Amino acid sequence: MTTTTASAQSRERTVGKSSPGTARGPRRRPGRIRRIGLPYLLLLPALLLELLVHLVPMVIGIVMSFKELTQFYIRDWTVAPWTGLDNYSLSVDFDAPVGEALLHSFLVTCVFTVLSVGLCWLIGTAAAICMQDAFRGRGLLRAIFLVPYALPVYAAVITWAFMFQHDNGLVNHVLHDQLGLTDKPSFWLIGDNSFVALLVVSVWKGWPFAFLIVMAGLQNIPKELYEAAALDGAGVWQQIRRITLPSLRPVNQVLVLVLFLWTFNDFNTPFVLFGKAAPEAADLISIHIYQSSFVTWNFGAGSAMSVLLLLFLLLVTGVYLFLTSRSSRTPRAAREGKTADV
Fold first, then answer.
1. What are the pLDDT digits (tens) for 42-63?
2. For the chain, what is the domain count?
3. What angle do CA 219, 222, 228 make, to 5 degrees?
4. Which residue stretches belong to region Disordered (predicted)?
5. Cβ of 237: how many Cβ atoms within 10 Å?
């Protein structure tokens, strides 16, 4: 009788421990809440930094664009008079000197961005394709190609500024003294040649990034495609056109957008190369806004120009993403239609 009672009690304890509704039920909810809240807790420092570094200054800049914030109100910018849209109307009045100068800077920046992004993509893609096949010394060449991207921007641009010097620069020494391509030493940091100098520096430090991204994208293309194309008699250019470039399309879409945003907003390169006053031929909009804000001490107009630049970049980015997403869906829909017809 005692043995039967003990066994029954032990079975009851076993059933009680294994019952999900009694022992484990209340403990699941706190664990689930902790698992759900952990990602947000980990993202909290990044969100706070994003708020303090980007969003708060952006809001302050937008507020400043509606004020007559000059050097007389630097000590306390909150008491600056409210001007409404006067700073914006002054910036877009292309018949006035301020608007005309801003339009010229915008056009120079557009031409510079198109040339720089195009050359960076072209050189980076060509170098990545040449480095695709294995050969002796490929790793060393890849490391050398990435040196301009690894160097600090200020060190690289200052080196180029010394090389572009008129009297004792390396560029004039090679082009004029050694090769005799010019009649006399050229001025690279002033005048019309300043645009060429700025473009050379931008492409030199930007194409390794395109090379790195395209080289990573080439690793995902199966080699069997090239082997099958070679058996069908396709040459190198046909393989690049029919296999490489279509396969790199998603990578190139992101790469071109990133290069566009970086180049259009580039401030360090012209500032270090030319100083506070860039030549007219190389007056990028970033350095122009800096001059309007910190040289003429008109922070209200400079803030309005910055907001207009932000709106332009948002518009271009939105249109670009819409067109690229639409073009990527069109071939897929065509393939699905052909499959359905079959």
1. 888 888 888 888 888 888 889 9
2. 1
3. 140
4. 1-30
5. 8
CA dihedral 269, 271, 274, 276 (to 10 degrees): 170
* Angle, vertex CA 269, rays to CA 107 and CA 123, nearest 5: 80
Give the domain range for residue 158: 92-326
For residue 51, being part of any structural domain is answered with no
What SS3 state is found at 82? strand
Out of 106-110, 229-233, 301-305, 333-337, least confident range: 333-337
List phi, psi (to 5°) of 215.
-65, -40
> Which CATH number goes with the domain that contains 132?
1.10.3720.10
Locate all alpha helices (DSSP H) within 131-243, ordered by sequence. Answer: 138-145, 147-150, 153-163, 170-172, 193-218, 223-231, 236-239
Query: Span 131-138, mean pLDDT?
Result: 84
**Cα–Cα distance, 306 to 102 (Å, whole number):** 11
Q: What are phi and psi of 67, to 5 degrees?
A: -120, 155
pTM metric for this prediction = 0.80
In a domain, 99, yes or no: yes
Tokens 């520096």 -> residue: 201
24 has pLDDT over 70: no
Residue 229 lies inside a defined structural domain of this protein: yes
Residue listed under structure tokens 């109307």: 89
Q: Note the pLDDT tens digit of each residue in 284-299.
A: 999 999 998 888 888 9
In angstroms, rounded to a whole number, what is the distance separating the alpha carbons of residues 224 and 239?
Answer: 12
Taking only Cα atoms into account, the Rg of the chain, rounded to an integer number of angstroms, comes to 30
Q: Is residue 127 part of a domain?
A: yes
Q: Which helix (H) or strand (E) holds 125?
A: helix 97-130
